Amino acid sequence: MSAAPAAPQPASAEPLGTAGALDLLLVPPRPRTGWRVLPARAGALCAVELQKLRHDRAELYTRAVQPALWLLIFGETFTRIKAIPTGGIPYIDYLAPGIIAQSAMFIAIFYGIMIIWERDSGILTKLLVTPTPRSALITGKAFAAGVKALIQAVVVIAIAALLGVALTWNPLKLIGVGVAVVLGSAFFSCLSMSIAGIVLTRDRLMGIGQAITMPLFFGSSALYPVSIMPGWLQAVSKANPLSYQVDALRGLLLGTPTHLGLDYGVLLLAAALGILAASSLLGRLAR
Amino acid sequence: MSDDDAVMCAGLEYAFGETRAVDGLDLSVTTGEVFGLLGPNGAGKTTAIRCITTLLPVPAGRIRVFGHDAAKERMAVRRLLGYVPQQLSADAGLTGRENVALFARVFDVPRRERARRVAQALYAVDLTEAADRMARTYSGGMIRRLELAQALVSAPRLLMLDEPTIGLDPIARTSVWEHINAVRRATGMTVLVTTHHMDEADQYCDRLALMHRGKIRALGTPQGLKSELRERRGPDDPPPTLEDVFRDVAGRGLDSEGGDFRDVRSTRRTAARLG
């Protein structure tokens, strides 16, 4: 599109306020094209998420309670009774990466409710009328969920450190942790937004969200090793992206044996498929 | 109708299941005018608007916005639009400035001019002083003006407003319209507005289309439509209002119209949020 004035100014036009005060509102911005659209939109939506968190930190504090309780009560208790084989590390250390993944998933899995709320309140409608491809909008939302989960992960890591969990402070490994958290959250938020695109109402989605969250959590390696699960649960765990996220986090934070290539590969593929599915269902929410 | 028109709809149809929301709509909006699409809830106004904005597909018929096909050139059409939906769409968790800045970013306003452009959009709707307050603290009229600023920040050629004064008190309604008119005078943009407030349409629109059961029943200037009815009724009757014109073209079926459950819920929710 050219950078020509938005519309011919009629002869009768009167200036609004001081002369030239609205000069920029006469010229449309030059559109981004190609690959630059996606990161630009994702950046815009992530920035909004950070701005909201800056204005209202209560969510950050209240969301810290549950992981703290898991580590403090469940972690401390099972460390004492030594009921779960953890390969020689204290159970609370073994549990910490699982709780990071869990709290990130809990944030992401309710993104579908948020998108339905945004549909009902007109925010989504307005975004869908901007020059933003639906895939870019969903990618933006997915990474916004990742940013929120990342902040949550920092809080949980801080709690774990206070409880004496022996975590790595290697910056490269911590960056790897961040990538795993963002990719996992991107997948779970897209899963939630895909379901939102199918069920279309908040009430139905809340029921489904609650129904799938616990099976995803218990059917992963967050609380116990896959090897002690019954066969059918091992199969569920292998198809569950949360297991790969936990495996990556555990390997990076604790130095346990891991399969980082496979873990990142599965998380990347899951996030890409999630974005594809949620983008194709987004149109149903617009109607 | 010509490609020079801001909006051209030809034979537009849209159905929700068995219900034909828009039934062969022919419409042209001339560049630079304020065009009002009037009708009761459920008349098909919002569906037509949603087709023009590319939110809904165009299953039958043709829509062109400044010559761009709304079915095939969606991104090109969206770049020309500023849209304010019926619902209250500002984000209460952000400040006024942040709300506008988000739309500057998604319309690719470069970083070096973003702050100035956002400031200009806020100035245009008289929200400069309140710009750094949280949107949740705004009054109903201020929120509508904030949404207007969000739509203006990308310098649209066509401003589309779906029931912009719904739920507002008379003073706030007047204020919103005054800002719409001031911005239009300053920028020369085309305005397409839906409303069921006949008094507003009469006062602020250059031309009107009266829509009922998915079709345009009358089209013209407010004065022209009233004069036409007066001629038909004869000089002994009192001068007709726009509401009389509407009752005349809609006939007895008007009383049974009221929109579906979702329309009513959305309208009431917006009205409730505006206080």
Automatic annotation (TrEMBL), chain A:
It is found in: Cell membrane; Membrane. Pfam families: ABC2_membrane (PF01061). It is a multi-pass membrane protein. The keyword Isomerase does not apply. The chain crosses the membrane at residues 94-117, 149-169, 175-200, 212-233, 264-283. It comes from the Bacteria. Signal peptide: none annotated. Residues 58-285 form the ABC transmembrane type-2 domain. Keywords: Antibiotic resistance, Cell membrane, Membrane, Transmembrane, Transmembrane helix, Transport. Belongs to the ABC-2 integral membrane protein family. PANTHER family: NODULATION PROTEIN J. This is Transport permease protein.
TrEMBL record, chain B:
GO terms for molecular function: ATP binding. It is a peripheral membrane protein. Coiled coil: none annotated. Residues 221-275 are annotated as: Disordered. Pfam families: ABC_tran. It comes from the Bacteria. This is ABC transporter ATP-binding protein. Residues 227-236 have a biased composition (Basic and acidic residues). It is found in: Cell membrane. Residues 7-238 form the ABC transporter domain. Belongs to the ABC transporter superfamily. InterPro entries: AAA+_ATPase, ABC_transporter-like_ATP-bd, ABC_transporter-like_CS, ABC_transporter_ATP-binding, P-loop_NTPase.
